Amino acid sequence: MSRLAVCPGSFDPITYGHLDIIRRGANVFDQVVVAVFNNQSKSPLFTVEERIHLLQEVTKDIGNVTVDSSTRLLMDYAKEQNASAILRGLRAVSDFEYEMQITSMNRKLNENIETFFMMTNNEFSFLSSSMVKEVAKYHANVSDLVPPVVEEALKKKFV
Asked: Is the pLDDT of residue 67 over 70?
């Protein structure tokens, strides 16, 4: 039986922290579907299509990773994909309480799909997409925070 994990997020934009979790998850699971979801509480900088494109570019060298998007409830989407797991990254203890609430609700919706947490590599533990956008808006160097294709896309957004 193939072990498929869905790695959900808004990825607006994808950072090296996200990529770290995706790469490490690809070493654990047979297949990882990176799924772009729109967070209703955020106004995105990049369209869903742009985020999908950027994700495809930065994961094209990882053979068992595919990129998709959904407007559905995560657990419905995961069931539709025949996922056995949800893959989530944790940066710090402050993420844990929020993630625990989401995981508890997801477990109530579908107890057959487990949630796996990976701690982000320490060098990325401070990193968030919101922080990257804020720094990029002021034309600061983000080359050590995001892959080159994402850096270029940010520069075009903040001309």
From this structure: yes
Active-site choice (51, 69, 91, 133): 91
Outline where DSSP puts E strands in 21-146: 31-36, 65-69, 85-90, 114-119
**Amino acid residing at 114:** E
Q: What is the pTM of this model?
A: 0.92
Catalytically annotated residue among 3, 42, 137, 139:
42
Q: Give catalytic status of residue 42 as yes or no.
A: yes
Which of 69, 70, 129, 133 is labelled catalytic?
Answer: 129
Please say if the pLDDT value at position 118 is more than 80: yes
124 is in an annotated binding site: yes
- Rounded CA separation 41/10 (Å): 11
pLDDT at 39: 72
Q: The domain 4-158 is classified under which CATH number: 3.40.50.2300, 3.40.30.10, 3.50.50.60, 3.40.50.620?
A: 3.40.50.620
Q: Is the pLDDT of residue 40 over 80?
A: no
Is 91 an annotated catalytic residue?
Answer: yes
